[in-house]
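On clarity, I found the account of how folds are encoded harder to follow than it need be. What matters is that the chain and its backbone geometry are given together, residue for residue. I therefore recommend that a typical entry be quoted early in the introduction. An entry of this sort, consisting of the sequence and the corresponding backbone structure tokens, reads as follows:
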Amino acid sequence: MQSFLKMKIDPHGQMIFNEQDIADLVMQNYDLVDMKNIMVDESVDLETAAHILEHVPEFVQYDKLVAESSTQEFDHRNQLTWFMPDEYKKLDIAEHVLSLCGNDAELQRCAEELMLFQERNLFDLLRYLKYLVDTMNQNGLIWGVGRGSSVASFVLYKLGVHKINSLYYELNPREFLR
């Protein structure tokens, strides 16, 4: 679609539509209902757009301060809005991961990696990945063996995110947690 070539993408990868983009999408019969939120710039009058396009999701005014925030601030702000049941939010993820270990070598590797995750304030990400894997398993969904540097993480292997035993292959977890 041509309109996707015209829209702006901020430093965090968010698509920002202007009034012309929205008009182009409507004229091309693009199904806006499938989009959760439509991020729009200041050229779009939110009240008018909502009345004209009553069957579309919420229009969200683009916040330039968000674009100017660091990647860490942006990620943290978005993590606060993730859907995750309370049982996962309250899960002691370090204890859970360590309970999955079968020997001293696994315990040591997981402890080292968990320290790296904790230094980067990523325990909520681990909790979310546990929830995601559990949800996919419960629904019979199949996902890939592993991809990219994430396979260097033994913690992610123990959580079931990927199927590559990075301890066996002596992969350095710092390749993933740079």
